[in-house]
Design goal:
By secondary structure, the protein is mainly α. It has helices spanning 3-33, 41-51, 53-72, 80-111, 115-147.
């Protein structure tokens, strides 16, 4: 196996890991934000943010950015359009995270429980969830193409 195949395998594993994380966040973690009492909310949210860098933030940003690298280091059997579509999925996740999600987390951490902001956090997370889902699907397609007999 050459570097491009190893790199694709790493990208696929990362995409599948993030697929599980994002659906758990979308269906469980973010809805739980609304269940925390107002008096405990800032402490809860601060605790949450202090625990997510290693399991969520680092792999999430890697998942957003590595598809761009994969465009240039993909196995020769992978059509460029699939790698580009995968990169677009990653960029959707990156833009949603930076432009929509991080500002809402900031509001919740500093302003306490706000039902409207929690609702926005859940609603605006759907494009990121779908982008990561698309990326996981596309990396599996690429993996199949790269490792299928010629």
């Amino acid at each position: 196996m050459d570097f491009s195949h190893w790199f694709l395998l790493v990208c696929t594993l990362l995409a599948l890991y993030n697929l599980g994380v994002i659906w758990f966040v979308q269906l469980v973690v973010y809805p739980l934000f609304a269940k925390v009492g107002s008096d405990d909310y800032v402490a809860y949210h601060t605790f949450y943010l202090s625990r997510i860098p290693l399991p969520v933030i680092v792999p999430g940003f890697a998942c957003f950015l590595l598809p761009i690298v994969l465009i240039f280091f993909r196995p020769v059997s992978i059509p460029l359009w699939i790698a580009l579509a995968n990169a677009v999925c990653g960029l959707v996740g990156l833009v949603v995270t930076v432009a929509l999600e991080i500002p809402r987390h900031y509001r919740l951490e500093n302003g306490g429980k706000q039902e409207r902001v929690i609702g926005e956090l859940i609603r605006y997370n759907w494009p990121r969830t779908l982008g990561i889902t698309g990326s996981a699907f596309l990396t599996l397609v690429m993996l199949t193409l790269a490792f299928s007999p010629a």
